Amino acid sequence: MSVFRSVVLGGWLMLTSVMQATAGPKPVLITQSALYGTEEVTFPNAIDKLQLAGTLTIPQGSGPFPAVVLISDMGAQNRDGNVRGYQPLRLLAEHLSEQGIAVLRFDDRGVGKSEGDNNAATTLDRVKDAQAAMQYLRTRPEIVAARVGIIGHGEGGNVGLLAAAQPLPPAYVVTLAASGQVGRELLATQQAAQRMVASADTSQTLGKRRLKAQQALDQQVASMRASGANAAQVETALAKYQLTQKMEAQTALAKALSREHAMLEIVRQNPDNAQVQAIVANMMRQDNADLDPAQARTLAARRTTPWYRNYLGFDPQQYLSNVKCPVLLLQGLDDEEVAPTNLALLEKGLKANRTVTVQKFEGVNHVFQAPEAHWPTVEGKTQPIFSYIALSTIREWVRQR
């Protein structure tokens, strides 16, 4: 086991009712550990006539084992959910398989070794892929067919819940920061939040920005005290500063949201992709004069893909009442992409389901990293890790299904 893995485990995821799947080519054993084996596998989505490729981790022992399918967040994701070297789906899969749970994670359509066109795949297409993955697991002799569930991250959580509202549902669903909002509202909020982050460095997480803000505040206090200000004067000045900062942030967010809603409406109301891309690219450059024209066109083109147009009208509330299996809803309170208020929306939609569990994690962000104060240092660099509290919550809940 590598040093990084040891540190991670020490410290701190519409279709017809029947989908046929065959075992396909014989799986290839690619790695082995003391606690689980790893296979490179392929399986068919028979409805859309394409092959998906992934990694299956199976605990050591005679089995049969419970199993989960991991479903990635929106966008073109590989089987590990790779984000700048951080691989949350891989870490989650390996942890669960070390604890006696088989896990299948796979490349999205058009990514890695999976066939298909990612830009053309809608959320409902992703449901079909998830069902194909479950059906494949049910053919494996090492797996308990009645104990195959789904763990989905972000949109993948919504895919899992939607699959649970269909025939042949998963045994359970775990969502990691799933949305309860209509798609266009979530996208507007996400895109507005991206405008609010001044730094183009996406590693500047909420935790880091809070730390920088606190350091700036500490410097201001020190400067005031050095100038002879007393405690009451310092407290008054800080309260005024914080109120001003809050009001400015609210004003900027409202402006950004208004702009994003305007662009989304252009996409919704105009089916001509070329026209939409030209208008949206122009609006983006009006907002940011430093944005390269080619980059603006690329960003605008992403807003006219079949997935994007479809997701604008995607409403999780329309199917949640049909979800009957056990559900675990998880959310990090430092999530800047899917606000924690989405939990209440999901709970409302699932109110007829008596087997719903909800848990929030302090200091955990959208990709379920542990608070940065708990990141280990490996070879002189801090390494982001999956929150071990979240890992253990998922593990223990799945074991009970």
TrEMBL record:
<feature type="domain" description="Xaa-Pro dipeptidyl-peptidase-like">
    <location>
        <begin position="51"/>
        <end position="348"/>
    </location>
</feature>
<dbReference type="Pfam" id="PF02129">
    <property type="entry name" value="Peptidase_S15"/>
</dbReference>
<dbReference type="GO" id="GO:0052689">
    <property type="term" value="F:carboxylic ester hydrolase activity"/>
</dbReference>
<feature type="signal peptide">
    <location>
        <begin position="1"/>
        <end position="23"/>
    </location>
</feature>
<protein>
    <submittedName>
        <fullName>Alpha/beta hydrolase</fullName>
    </submittedName>
</protein>
<dbReference type="InterPro" id="IPR000383">
    <property type="entry name" value="Xaa-Pro-like_dom"/>
</dbReference>
<dbReference type="InterPro" id="IPR053145">
    <property type="entry name" value="AB_hydrolase_Est10"/>
</dbReference>
<keyword id="KW-0378">Hydrolase</keyword>
<keyword id="KW-0732">Signal</keyword>
<dbReference type="InterPro" id="IPR029058">
    <property type="entry name" value="AB_hydrolase_fold"/>
</dbReference>
